[in-house]
Amino acid sequence: MRSRDGLIAIALAGFTMAVTAAGLQQTPPPPPPQTPPAGEQQPPAPGAPPGRGQGRGQRGVFPAMQRPLADPAVIERGRNLFSVNCSACHGADARGGQLGGPNLLRSQLVLMDQDGEQILPVVQKGRPEKGMPPFQLPEADIKAIVEFIHSLTGASRGQGAPPIVSPPPNIVVGDATAGQAFFAAKCSSCHSTTGDLQGIATKVPDPKLLQNLWVSGGLATGFGRGGRGGLPPGPAITAVVSPAQGPKVEGRLLRIDDFAVSLMLEDGTIQSFRRDGAVPKIEIHDPLEGHRELLRIYTDKDMHDVTAYLVTLK
Description:
Layout lengths: L1 H25 L36 H4 L5 H14 L1 H4 L17 H5 L6 H7 L13 H17 L20 H11 L13 H4 L3 H10 L21 E5 L6 E8 L3 E5 L5 E5 L6 E5 L3 H6 L5 H11 L4
Antiparallel strand pairs: 1-2, 1-5, 2-3, 3-4
């Protein structure tokens, strides 16, 4: 009797184990851990410093990406100064221009600068070994340019990435009649609405590009390298060199400092002259000089008024 009971117990135990095993096989595996969709940021790990290891879209780790922005009026003034003086080499968005200047959003000097202490000396003294001339600008103007550059790095998604900028849907907010009066008083001695600017609003239908074009004097065409879109590249600075002996030489100014001046002649050859004080005599013709002078005169309202007038020149 005991043997029979033992066999029954063993059989029941085996049956229970089989049922349990079958149930385990039918139970679905636990779902894998959820991962955030592409572009969504995971929260930083406890104790992790802000800005590190948090993926794209977060504030960068460089001082230039973390510093507070300047007053919008200062940034806008810096934008205009940058457009006239710097965009030909560094591009309208500081990522490199048609004259081969470096991307400032990747520059360690720019990224580590706080208040112009590193950028200002470079602008004032230039980098002749890299083809950058010195700029004789007031310190306040250079500081405004610095603030504009920092506004780009502050809006960048990462080192060297394009800045995230939301332009206004329409910048034509000025008074066209006032713009026409300003143009007649300040611009008509060099430009004509029936000559070089005839049909300018048809050639450049985007008001933002048109404003950048006239404020920069033709440097910021908005069409990338090479001046595409029917517009020539920015105007060239030319010079006439009168040696102590020999004929005058005229050409495009490539470089000038206290020791030498270099010109590109009409046939493409390059000629250099050693400088010793005022010898040789050098006459420089800068087509943008008038535009640089206007930077000290016109206000934001003047700029918008002139743009509102120019968009009517179909």
